[in-house]
Amino acid sequence: MGIEQLTEQARQLDDSQIQLLCEMAESLRGPCDVWVNHDSDLVSERFSDAMLNRLKLHHATSEEKFKKASFEYAFVSAARYAGASSYKTRSQTFQGADVVVDGVRWSLKTEASAKMSESNIAVSKFSEARWIRDCFTPEDFANECVPRFLKHLGEYDRVVTLRAFDAPADRVRYHLVEIPKGLLALVGQLKPDDFSARTRNGGSSALVYDSSGIAFRVVLDGSVEKVTLARISVDRCVQHAIWTVPTIPDSSQ
């Protein structure tokens, strides 16, 4: 759509819509900070521009950080703008990949806790796990967790998370970080002795190691019946890009 088409569309809007359109345009023109890993095979200049604009538009009308569904649509849009074939999978409850880009299956995660660590990534929902209720011993947890974890991991090719941090002067800093699939696959090395005894909420946990030491912690949360991941070192991951965008002031301040 060019300027002429945009002007024609604007003529058909009422005053309230024009005001909103102006706010969005002002947001798109606003200054921001961008860093892109030049070795990234995901974030090209066009991908970065498209993702940045989606983030700007979102925060033109909301102080709330990007959620998973918004990230999925923005990721697909950015990939298409960068020239790739991209689409969302069939539903938000699908246990496998969230989006497919040029045949590559991506699992998308988001993280936006106020107390989240800069150096360690948490995945609040790696997968659902109703089977946890049937586990009572470390052997049960190992026998159920390891094959199910690897099966779930096999349903996509790459994993990326969008991490949102509060920044000074009413801004939000977004980090796009890829968690290597090979790192997560180390769960396959876990044995019954690695799992803790059953907790009061019916769960368990295990530390996963690589050649450098503790790689991350897998948590089987019996209270909500899901698998979560904690303490994934950012140093073991690939930082693809960082976007810092202005947002509307927090109404609680």
Topology at a glance:
Elements: H1 3-11, H2 15-29, E1 33-36, H3 45-61, H4 68-81, E2 86-88, E3 99-101, E4 104-111, E5 120-128, H5 138-153, E6 158-167, E7 171-179, H6 181-184, E8 204-210, E9 213-221, E10 226-233, E11 238-246
Parallel strand pairs: 4-6
Antiparallel strand pairs: 1-11, 2-3, 3-4, 5-10, 6-7, 7-11, 8-9, 9-10
Helix pairs in contact: 2-3, 3-4
In short:
The chain is of the alpha+beta class and 253 residues long.
What does this structure look like?
By secondary structure, this protein is of the alpha+beta class. It has a single domain, classed as ECO RV Endonuclease, Chain A (3-Layer(aba) Sandwich). It is built from six helices and eleven strands. The chain has a seven-stranded mixed beta sheet. It has a four-stranded antiparallel beta sheet with strand order 5-10-9-8, with helices on one face. A hairpin with a 3-residue loop joins strand 6 and strand 7. Helix 2 crosses helix 3. The longest helix is centred in the first third of the chain and has 17 residues. The protein starts with a helix and ends in a 7-residue tail after the last strand. Pfam families: SmaI (PF17411). InterPro entries: SmaI. This is Restriction endonuclease. One of its GO terms (molecular function) is type II site-specific deoxyribonuclease activity.
